[in-house]
Specification:
The chain has 501 residues and is an alpha/beta fold. It is built from 11 helices and 22 strands. It folds into 2 domains: 3-94 and 133-164 and 362-441 and 492-496, FAD/NAD(P)-binding domain, CATH 3.50.50.60; 170-359, FAD/NAD(P)-binding domain (3-Layer(bba) Sandwich). The strands form 7 sheets. It has a 5-stranded parallel sheet, covered by helices on one side. A 5-stranded parallel sheet has the order 11-18-12-13-14. The two termini are 15 Å apart.
């Protein structure tokens, strides 16, 4: 672990000790929070190193190919290198740099710099794993091979798909990448691990500051209009659109690294959600956001089922497809009314807009034979939601955002996918059925303001699944903010990517 990381962890530990005293926790519970497992809370409870080594191993010989060099691919490589010592393992990924993608939100809030969230990918490729610095352009599971852009065909006995997610900005009419960062348009998601660009965090921080300058010149009677969007598709970290909403609004209240007077009522915020009519799908978390967080700001209007489809960046007008229902005729036999689904286009002028793009599985994957061919999961990997094994190609497994399962497009979920992949792939290598089951664990450290996070953990049961049940999981807390800002990044670099948590 880097010396700077150790220093930060020690400083935060001292601060947290004081905070825990004020929480009135028992010494036993406090010690749980102060242990290694605490910092891993955002990824769920963390087994000890001794427990970790008890995972299934095999002496079987085979060629395992991992496609993707993000968090999921690197974790899978680390775990499988230890679990299958006689296997040949190849990882195919073009990215020379590795990005700590959760850090982009802290960049947007002015709390991280670009060089703090990227490191050479070579630092994390396990010894003994062959790295082909190339991109897979075709998946051919019928012939147990993938096709790369420069190195041709690569055969495998077992395949782990970890290609992640693609941002489809071009699906929004009028929006091109060169328009992001100009005319009041920002998007924290904009990055490129192949080049090391973290432009999304950089331009969104400038967006924060420009918005504050405009609000200082505005008034409560003539406020600026700010829109924060969320598309109708699944997205990486479902809470990120609201993180930007609340942090930028709080920034106008004078919080954050710049300070200044409170001018947030000189801005009118719109939160537009492309699909759905709740802030969060879990009741307990939704109530905190709708009844406590948003009323605290007092200047946020929610636009449900409003999906951004067009933008005119010169005129600063965003167009949304609004889907809604109206009451139809009464059916006397069933004693209910029919409801008719209607659509309309709604234009909203803005001064500043934060765009979360529609998202799909990686472009090179979503039309492959490994993808779901129909339904709402079309294009995502067709996998069993518990074993993470492909439903038709039994020598193929998936990890991370590419999976077409009900939950789990977060780094914390990928951390939980790792042990499942290890256990089940080893079992299949030995001719056995996979038995390890992913429970749907998903975690969203939802930043409700500078200095507080609601640690929203849940699983397939669609109920809170807190790692530390002695703390109300729906309560925004400074403790979680400190863990996220100071502790999780070094844990990510030094433990998570190495398959040690």
């Amino acid at each position: 672990m880097h010396s700077d990381d150790i220093k930060k962890l020690k400083e935060v530990q001292e601060m947290i000790e004081e905070t825990l005293k004020s929480e009135g926790l028992s010494r036993r519970d406090a010690l749980k929070l102060m242990g290694l497992g605490t910092a891993g809370a955002f990824m769920g409870s963390v087994p000890s190193h001794a427990e970790e080594q008890k995972g299934k191993t095999t002496d079987a010989k085979a060629h395992i190919v991992i496609v993707g060099g993000g968090a999921g691919g690197i974790m899978a490589a680390a775990r499988l290198r230890r679990a299958a010592g006689n296997a040949k393992i190849t990882i195919i990924a073009p990215n020379e740099l590795h990005l700590y993608q959760p850090g982009q939100v802290f960049m947007a809030a002015g709390l991280y710099k670009a060089d703090e969230i990227k490191r050479p990918n070579a630092d994390f490729i396990p010894d003994g794993v062959k790295w082909i610095k190339d991109k897979v352009v075709e998946f051919d599971p019928d012939h147990n091979q993938v096709v790369t852009a420069k190195n041709g065909k690569v055969k495998y006995d077992f395949l782990v798909v970890a290609v992640g997610i693609s941002y489809q900005y071009e699906q929004i009419e009028g929006l091109t990448l060169d328009k992001l960062g100009k005319n009041g348009v920002a998007s924290v998601y904009l990055n490129n691990p192949e080049t090391g660009s973290v432009k999304g965090g950089e331009i969104t921080w400038e967006w924060f500051k420009q918005m504050r300058a405009a609000a200082e010149k505005a008034s409560k009677d003539n406020p600026i209009n700010v829109i924060c969007t969320q598309p109708a598709t699944p997205i990486k970290c479902g809470g990120a659109p609201q993180k930007i909403l609340y942090l930028s609004d709080d920034f106008l209240r004078g919080n954050g690294p710049v300070g200044g007077k409170d001018v947030h009522m000189n801005a009118k915020f719109y939160f537009t959600k492309g699909k759905g009519s709740k802030l969060f799908g879990i009741k307990e978390y939704n109530e905190t956001l709708s009844k406590r967080v948003q009323p605290m700001y007092g200047n946020i209007t929610n636009k449900w089922n409003h999906n951004l489809v067009k933008i005119d960046t010169d005129k600063k007008v965003a167009t949304f497809k609004h889907v809604y229902q109206v009451k139809g005729e009464y059916d006397p036999e069933l004693e209910i009314y029919d409801y008719i689904t209607k659509e309309e286009m709604v234009e909203i002028p803005y001064d500043f807009i934060h765009v979360v793009p529609p998202m799909t599985a990686a472009n090179e994957f979503r039309t492959s034979p490994l993808a779901w061919q129909k339904g709402s999961a079309k294009g995502w990997m067709e996998a069993d939601k518990e074993t993470l094994q492909h439903r038709r190609y039994k020598n193929v497994f998936g990890i991370g955002d590419v999976l077409g399962i009900p939950k789990g497009k977060t780094g914390g979920s990928a951390r939980h996918h790792g042990p499942i992949i290890q256990e089940n792939l080893v079992a299949v290598m030995e001719g056995k059925e996979p038995t390890a089951k992913f429970d749907g664990y998903t975690v969203c450290p939802l930043k409700t303001q500078y200095g507080k996070i609601m640690l929203a953990e849940f699983n397939y049961g669609s109920k809170p699944a807190p790692s530390f049940p002695f703390l109300d999981p729906a309560e925004p807390r400074w403790i979680w903010w400190a863990f996220d800002l100071y502790m999780l990044k070094p844990m990510y670099w030094n433990l998570m990517l190495r398959g040690l948590m």
